[in-house]
Write a structure and sequence with these properties.
Layout (H helix, E strand, L loop, with lengths): L1 H33 L13 E13 L2 E2 L5 E2 L5 E13 L4 E8 L9 E8 L4 E3 L1 H6 L6 E6 L3 E4 L12 E5 L18 E2 L2 E2 L9 E4 L4 E4 L4 E5 L5 E8 L18 E8 L12
Parallel strand pairs: 12-13
Antiparallel strand pairs: 1-4, 2-3, 4-5, 5-17, 6-7, 6-8, 8-9, 9-11, 10-15, 13-14, 15-16, 16-17
Length: 273
């Protein structure tokens, strides 16, 4: 009887401790899920800042017309200071590039200077170095808004080979595995006038010249050395806004993207959750 009572009291003590532990764990998970970077609300708070840069930009200051409508007129601008960042989420090995400036002019005015990026160095590659092949680049953004994407492929477009890409209709964190089929695309673009036949990463309306990134599209790159990269181009507007009313409301191109590198060649596991 004495042994039974000792076991009973031991169980009675352990159960509350387990409940408290589970409760604390749930609270921690909830806090982690709901906590984000002040510099970029779409980046988890646990991500570590690894790069930072200062820049200046021209912000169009809106006014309200006689009808009460807010108007963005490019003639009314203000010079402001901003910051670009690169963060690393060490838990899932995801790199976040936040408000990294591209060309200095507003993208709505026309084509922009090409933007080359190296996933390994987490940095921009100068165009001269990219063209001379003195430095490695993995993805090139070019043309209007820098919204068109090109890879450093080993074969022509339409042929199987390394250094190519594929667009998957899946949100970034829900995509756990790269496709097994050989990749044949060397380029990707946005879709125009809400047409979905191109299978792009976003859409661009010629009627109002506003870019709308898709939230459920993710790139898969297979680099020249066989490694897979999962990549989401979140936005090309500064501050990664959810909704854009006018082509001059937010400055562009400012790169907001995230990616994960599977370091083992030919390993299709790209899970980040």
């Amino acid at each position: 009887m004495k042994q039974f009572m000792q076991k009973y009291w031991l169980i009675a003590l352990i159960i509350p401790l387990l409940l408290i532990s589970c409760s604390n764990s749930d609270d921690e998970n909830k806090e982690e899920a709901e906590s984000f970077k002040a510099e970029a609300p779409w980046v988890p708070a646990r991500a570590k800042k690894i790069k930072e840069m200062d820049f200046e930009y021209d912000a169009v200051i809106p006014y309200t017309d006689a009808s009460g409508k807010k108007v963005w007129d490019k003639a009314n601008t203000e010079r402001r200071k901003g910051k670009g960042y690169v963060f690393l989420d060490e838990k899932y090995k995801v790199v976040y590039v936040v408000d990294w400036p591209g060309a200095s002019t507003n993208a709505a005015d026309g084509a922009n200077t090409p933007f080359y990026f190296n996933f390994d160095t987490q940095d921009v590659v100068a165009e001269a170095d990219a063209l001379a092949r003195t430095k490695t680049w993995h993805v090139k953004h070019f043309d209007i808004y820098n919204a068109f994407i090109l890879t450093d492929a080993t074969t022509e477009n339409g042929q199987p080979g390394l250094g190519k890409l594929r667009i998957i209709r899946s949100p970034f964190d829900q995509l756990d595995e790269a496709p097994a089929e050989p990749m044949i695309r060397t380029a990707a673009s946005v879709e125009f006038e809400d047409r979905e036949s191109v299978d792009g990463w976003g859409r661009y309306r010629l009627s109002d010249h506003i870019l709308h990134p898709y939230k459920d599209r993710t790139f898969i790159f297979q680099l020249r050395d066989g490694r897979y990269v999962k990549y989401q181009l979140a936005n090309l507007y500064r501050s990664n806004p959810d909704n854009v009313i006018d082509k001059y409301e937010y400055e562009a191109p400012f790169f907001n993207f995230r990616y994960f590198i599977q370091q083992m060649p030919n390993d299709r596991n790209v899970k980040t959750r």
